[in-house]
Amino acid sequence: MSVHIHDYPGVPLKDRDIGDGRVLTTEWHVKAQYAWDTGAALSKFFRGLKEGKIYGRWCPGCDRVMVPPRMFCEWCFRPTVRWVEVGDTGRVNTFSVSYVNWDASRSAVPRVPAVVELDGASPGMGIMHLLGGVGDTLEEILGRVKVGMPVQAVWKPPAERQGAITDILYFAPRPGGEE
């Protein structure tokens, strides 16, 4: 979505269009049962998220702390040997402003996906997540969010955490961290 485009041709699809038969649909049942093993690295990472902690792995070959963790270093192909708890604070590496929802519909409220480099992880190591508390309009967001901006994770309450990346609600500007 661009601020320079004010009129979008076409007709957005609504749920009721499908229910009312206004669009052609087909229905079938897919048997798509599967199991996915997170492996040792991501299992610890997700358990840590449930506890409000973020873990990485240290590589002795290139002295990097990698987040998300992996058991082998993709740079020097050595096994990683140690868990490292990194901070839930960091800096914005890159960001975007999106007006598209998960279902490809347009959103009136912008969302700000960003890559956050976490404190304690090696440079360039970060996780992609959402920024929050950075404004409700494009102008507010662009006036506030900058590459390098200090941020801190905003966690779900402990009783609501499930061991998923969504246990972090979003990253917010760090109080007192304005530059």
Description:
The structure is a single chain. The protein is of the alpha+beta class. The protein is globular. The strands form two sheets. Strands 4, 5, 6, 7, 8 and 9 form a six-stranded antiparallel sheet that branches. A three-stranded antiparallel sheet has the order 2-1-3, covered by helices on one side. The model has no long low-confidence stretch (mean pLDDT 91). The longest helix has 12 residues. The chain starts with 14 loop residues before the first helix and ends in a 6-residue tail after the last strand. The protein is built from three helices and nine strands; from the N terminus they run H-H-E-E-E-E-E-E-E-H-E-E. A hairpin with a 5-residue loop joins strand 5 and strand 6.
Key terms for this structure?
alpha+beta, three-stranded antiparallel β-sheet
Give the helix/strand layout:
Blueprint: H1 15-19, H2 39-50, E1 54-59, E2 64-66, E3 82-86, E4 89-95, E5 98-100, E6 106-118, E7 126-131, H3 138-144, E8 150-155, E9 168-173
Antiparallel strand pairs: 1-2, 1-3, 4-6, 4-8, 5-6, 6-7, 8-9
The pLDDT mean sits at 91
Q: Count of DSSP E strands? A: 9
Sum up the overall morphology in one term: globular
| Helical content (DSSP H or I, runs of 4+) | 10-25%
Give the radius of gyration: 20 Å
Helix/strand order: HHEEEEEEEHEE
Question: Main beta sheet: strand number and arrangement?
Answer: 6 strands, antiparallel
Q: What is the distance, rounded to the nearest whole angstrom, between the alpha carbons of the first and last residues?
A: 29 Å
Report the β-strand fraction as a percent range.
25-35%
Structural class estimated from helices and strands: alpha+beta
What's the helix count? 3
* Poorly predicted spans: none
